[in-house]
Amino acid sequence: MRKLVLATDNKNKVNEIKDILSDLPIEILSKDEIGLEDLKVIEDGETLIDNSLKKAREISKYTDYLVVADDTGLFVEKLNGEPGVYSSRYAGEDGNDKKNVELLLKKLNGEESNAYFETVICLITEDKKEFIASGRCFGKVLTTVRGENGFGYDPIFQPDGFDKTFAELGSKQKNEISHRRKAIENLREILIKLLGDENENTCGK
């Protein structure tokens, strides 16, 4: 069975990816499980792809397993795409969710705005080939904080087709429609093709 290492310390991300890829012949590992718990990568790229590639490439230096890394941003129309790639450190490098939300609402100055979340996932194979998968969830940023669940900008983001914010929907319903879910589903399709191609090549030998 092939092994896949996730460039994350977030247990929720690990469990979500394990669930979506559960029917594939792949063992999912966190970077902690291969002895890289102290490896920290500075996310200083100009795009989500830059950051996800940087994290995946760094871990790929230390292992011959499949490697997956992701980055996520919120893109707000009325702010010309801010905070975008800087979403997690919008109000400073400490990554404080409350401060980030407060700054975003301050910049919107009492106005709602169309927005979308995007997750980009980078996959690096054992032979160092690189693949990109992504997913978006469209909606709008509200003028007030609503809901107790979730993290980041969840309390002010209302996805299209719902009258609740991500923080009001709860993790189960959010994960069914989220940008990350869509990106992982697209990653799954890439992995299925890779596994299929490998089987065809093996059978043809």
Question: Would you kindly provide a written description of the structure presented here, covering whatever features stand out?
Answer:
This protein has helices at 11-20, 48-60, 97-108, 166-169, 171-177, 179-204, and strands spanning 2-6, 26-30, 66-76, 83-84, 113-124, 130-141, 157-159. It has six helices and seven strands; from the N terminus they run βαβαββαβββααα. It is globular. The two termini are 20 Å apart. Strands 1, 2, 3, 4, 5, 6 and 7 form a seven-stranded mixed beta sheet that branches. The chain is of the alpha/beta class. The longest helix is centred in the last third of the chain and has 26 residues, at 179-204.
List the helices and strands and how they pair.
Blueprint lengths: L1 E5 L4 H10 L5 E5 L17 H13 L5 E11 L6 E2 L12 H12 L4 E12 L5 E12 L15 E3 L6 H4 L1 H7 L1 H26 L1
Parallel strand pairs: 1-2, 1-3
Antiparallel strand pairs: 3-4, 3-5, 5-6, 6-7
